[in-house]
Predict the structure.
Amino acid sequence: MAEAAPASEFKPHLFGKFFLLQRLAMGGMAEIYRARVPGAGGFEKELVVKRILPARAQDQGFIKMLVNEAKLTVQLTHSNIAQVYECGRIDGTYFISMELVNGVSLKEMMQAFTRAGQAISPEQAIFMVLQLLTGLDYAHKKTDSQGRPLQIVHCDVSPDNALVSWEGEMKLLDFGIARAATGLSNYKEGMLMGKLGYVAPEQASLERKWDHRVDIFAAGIILYELLTKQKPFPKATDVESLVQSRKARVVPPTSVDPRLPRDLDGIVAKALAYDPDDRYPDARSFADALVDVLFPTPQSSIQDLLGKQMQQVFSEKIVRQRAARAHDPLIMKVLANLAEKQAKAEYERLSAQSAPAFATESADALFEPHLAAGSTDGSSLETPRPAPRRPSRPRTVVLEGVRVRTALLVGLLVAAAGAAGLHYGETWLRPGVLVVTSEPPGAAVSLDGTPTGQVTPAVLEDVILSTRHDVALEGAGLRGAAVAVEPVPGKMVRRVHARLQTALGSFTVRSVPAGAEVRVDERVIGATPVTISKVRMDERHRIDLTLVGYDLDQFVVLPEKDGTEFSRTLARTEARPKEKAPEPKGRDKGRP
């Protein structure tokens, strides 16, 4: 079983056309990666790349097994079999690309459900084995393009080689030791291959012939374990003890759990029969028997419940899996630009190799016929070497020939300098990619004062990196940051990272006397003494204090400069003098 590789040892990189984003596992023979393949118009295909280790690169026997597995499995297109897409070699390293199943092995699922106290219902156990049998039946009956049976036998059906997706779908994988009627068979006759706990007795015997019914036997063991959480046979340590253990009487599932349907006792006994002739003749017959037990319960509801349980038990793993994908677009952009840069470098290298075809003939050789007439000092030259036939042209005097040759040499030098300048000038002016990240992420990005509409992590394309740029980052509750990007010749990818400080804080308002209503920026907060939280410390805030019998107290604070403690003494409202009643008009004062 491959062990998970430490994330610190892996960095996303290119492997041919594959963008390797995450190493999922590493064993003694191969590494398994989560990868993506980009296409036109933003198309991307996520898949798994199984790449053999360098130490195995020279093992022709192992390479043959890998290729045979790919050739055999690529013919199997079924919803319950993990699809193989491609087998090839990149830089001397063999690989298989195949379907990515977001989930875990059946073995890991069973162990996790037990730890979490989640029960696997009889209906769910039957449903999962039904999917397994459906995939096996397809493989067992697969024919080639001419209709000839391939006679595929998986030979290693076990919980390790069955994947359960987060939605409760079962996928059979790893046909690495599959047996077939063609030259693609990897099973070594005369050897016991497969996991001892799931091997049929005839498969362990070197004297007995066996067929696809060994897979049915293994599926029966898986069904028994799902139903009872126990092993149906005593543990075996070698071939002899394995054969003897298979002769043991299997305890009926209902004896372990009386709540199970009694019909399952006969089905399990038939699947685990010692003699292959007493078993189900094919996977379809086994599946049909299970359907009869399962029929009262709708299949869709069983899978829905199983999917919910998977997502509940593996919630942390799903979160980690999604987190691992969070920066995929960013990594893909960087790797895509790296791939483009490598392609251009290869093109320039090939162009440079083919360029001498033009310059193989020297400037002197081009004008040799003219120089044969004489020299600048009047002495004769040796008989010239035969020159290629050229269209006739007027003969020139020696002096003119020298001038022409000199002009040509100067012209070639100027052209070469111009070409070099054009090449480096093109590199200097070629647009690149600016990768902007921040801690914490989610900050809005502006480039040279213009908002980009992106938040970190952001990938800004078509940026001329030969000139200076100013990157500004702003986020809710964060202090803005500005970063200058200085030009660096030849760089096609630049990265900018900023650590943003929080702009939020708290301050306390007190009053004498206490109990005054507090408004901050027209928003009622409470009564003094009160602490106002999650306010920007780098902005000014107006505070109003209101208390009956006291004057309104208003003041403005900038917490990052004025501090975080504000105490105000309220002034009592002064009593105003009563107004005198107006004197009556039209009569003398005091007259009745």
User: Anything to note?
Assistant: The domain at 504-569 is CATH 2.60.40.1120 (Immunoglobulin-like).
